[in-house]
Amino acid sequence: MKKSIPSVRDENIELQWTAMGLRVTLSAQEPMQDRWVIQLPREPLEKASGRLIEHLQRDSLKLAVLGEQGADAISNLLSRMPYSNEGDYQETLSTIVSRSECTCGQMDCNHIREALQAAEDSWRGASVVDRLAWIGWTAETLLDTVLDRWASKSSIKDAESELKRFIAHFDTPAYRNKEGEANLAEWLAEMAHNGRLHQPGPELHDVEISLSPMQLSPQDTAVHPWSQLLPGVPGVAEGLSLVIEQASKNAEELVKSLRASKS
Fold first, then answer.
1. Neighbour tally for 33: CB within 10 Å
2. What was the pLDDT predicted at 200?
């Protein structure tokens, strides 16, 4: 587990998700007994955590959304409570019960089943952030762990040396400077020295961007029904007018070429 998780309480029950597993305290109904304490095993929490990490290692898009949107982005991966009886119910239940302990001292007691039901109810009512915390994670620590595992599995131990080795393959007469052309090896070396490989070329400065609204010929009759499909989106009418205008020009050019071919 990666952090200490506060317990969940109501008047009859207390749940505490710890490194040892889920600890459930039930108010006792029997005379001469104040409460029963049930310790559920930690293995289901570890398995739930492992399944989550493995899924995110395979799904880079989901991992990216986790980084951008937080825990809510993986709500579908946290729908199943770690002590859930999905699958083979009897086998799963018997395994959990056999590894659980209750202060009543009896094996396979009803208190354990009450604890499991309380855990299920608590999980269903919890937020995604709490569910993630109960198996030992925050969105940030989970993201960092998956990225660290990716890095540890990478065969590149020294990125700088690997880049230099890669550049050496291009240091041949075929890739050396030609008139008016850049040397690829030297360019890569320079970018690596500067700490980035995305410096824009000089052509970027040739691009001019105008933020002034375009004056387009009105296409109200044709545009209005389509613009209603995107309410509140700025520039819809102007954009559709531009598309219609260009399509009309293309159609005119096509007609002219067909007429010319027949004459």
1. 11
2. 63
